Amino acid sequence: MKVIFMGTPDFSVPTLEALIESSHEVIGVITQPDKPKGRGKKMVVPPVKEMAIKHGIPVYQPLKVRDKTFIEFVRSLNPDVAVVIAFGQILSLELLEVPKFGCINVHASLLPKYRGAGPIQWSVINGESETGITTMHMDVGIDTGDMIFKDIVKIEAKETGGSLHDKLSTLGANTLLKTLEALENGSAPRERQVDEESTYAPMLSKELGLIDWSKDAVEIERLIRGLNPWPSAYSYLDGKMVKIWDGDVISSNNKSIGEVIHIDKSSIIVQTGKDALAIKELQLEGKKRMTTEEFLRGYKVDLGVKLG
Fold first, then answer.
1. Is 48 helix (H, G, I), strand (E, B) or coil?
2. What is the CA angle 225-228-234, rounded to 5?
3. Angle between helices 13-21 and 161-184 in degrees, nearest 10
4. Residue 117: which of 208, 52, 197 has the closest Cα?
């Protein structure tokens, strides 16, 4: 099939690569415009664009894919199907109807759970035992289209947002190829989503990472893992921001929420609303990420000091 690929970040790259290596023809890649990044505001190209250029595939970066001129251009390419994965813009009905087989979305959750921009991280934060990839026929809603295939992955005990991202990006490529094969031979199912069973996974923000020590240690530990590597969970120690990268839940009946109740060679233990969190890896602002053992060699933490 002649495929238009629409995607932007790292998550989309394995699926594009799988398409390039398959029997399908990627006739064009549509991605977000280059953006300035960092203190020097250097223009950075999307990872999907890098992959497309590497393989000599034409790249298009419209400011708005809903623009009628661009829709006519896509129509002129005469695609059989459009594959959309973490693209970053909402498609109009007019664009959705251009390809012969429509637009197929590769979504990183088991729909209808976790519609929205942050399904990977929220599945960790909320303590799900499993998640996966869903392919679907796109409609004008946000992740509301009829489902085609689902593939499941288990969320491990110490799973982070980053490790789950990598698992699902690889799985997404496999699920997509299976989906295109079914579309070609006319066997692709259409299962309507039950809206009443849907949940929403909003976009992540840096503010989300501020730890509320009055919450249960289990919730805080999941937040730390879910927001690793971005935007990261953090608190304040002696007025300085400290990112917390790893911790273990331990039993505690202490009432001093947010207080350092114990320090040993490898952990700083902080009381939470229920139980306590043994911090194992952290990063003080302006410093590198390190184990607690490394941190305590160069920074004195007193019992009774409060984080927050």
1. helix
2. 85
3. 30
4. 208
Measured CA to CA, the distance from residue 149 to residue 134 in angstroms comes to 6
Find where tokens 């394995």 sit: 14
Which H, E and C letters describe 212-279, residue by residue? CCCCEHHHHHHHHHHCCCCCCEEEEECCEEEEEEEEEEECCCCCCCCEEEEEECCEEEEECCECEEEE
202 labelled as ligand-binding? Answer: no
pLDDT in tens, 281-303: 999 999 999 999 999 999 999 99
52, two tokens: 């497309």
Q: Is 189 annotated as a binding residue?
A: no
Radius of gyration of the chain (CA): 22
Q: Judge residue 232's burial from the number of C-beta atoms within 10 Å of its C-beta, 0-12 exposed, 13-18 middle, 19 or more buried.
A: middle
pLDDT of residue 39: 81
Query: Which pLDDT score, from 0 to 100, does residue 48 have?
Result: 98
Of the options 2.60.40.10, 3.40.50.1360, 3.40.50.800, 3.10.25.10, the CATH number for the domain spanning 207-298: 3.10.25.10
Render pLDDT for 113-136 as a digit per residue (tens, 0 to 9).
999 999 999 999 999 999 999 999
In DSSP terms, 34 is beta-bridged to none
Has 93 been labeled as part of a binding site?
A: no
Q: Model's pTM, two decimal places?
A: 0.96
Residue 205, annotated as binding a ligand: no
**Positive or negative CA dihedral for 220, 221, 227, 229?**
positive
Sign of the four-CA dihedral 187, 192, 198, 202: positive
**What whole-number distance in Å separates Cα of residue 31 and Cα of residue 26?**
14
CA-CA distances (angstroms) from residue 214 to 42, 256, 272, 273? 41, 10, 5, 4
Homologous superfamily of 2-197: Formyl transferase, N-terminal domain (3.40.50.170)
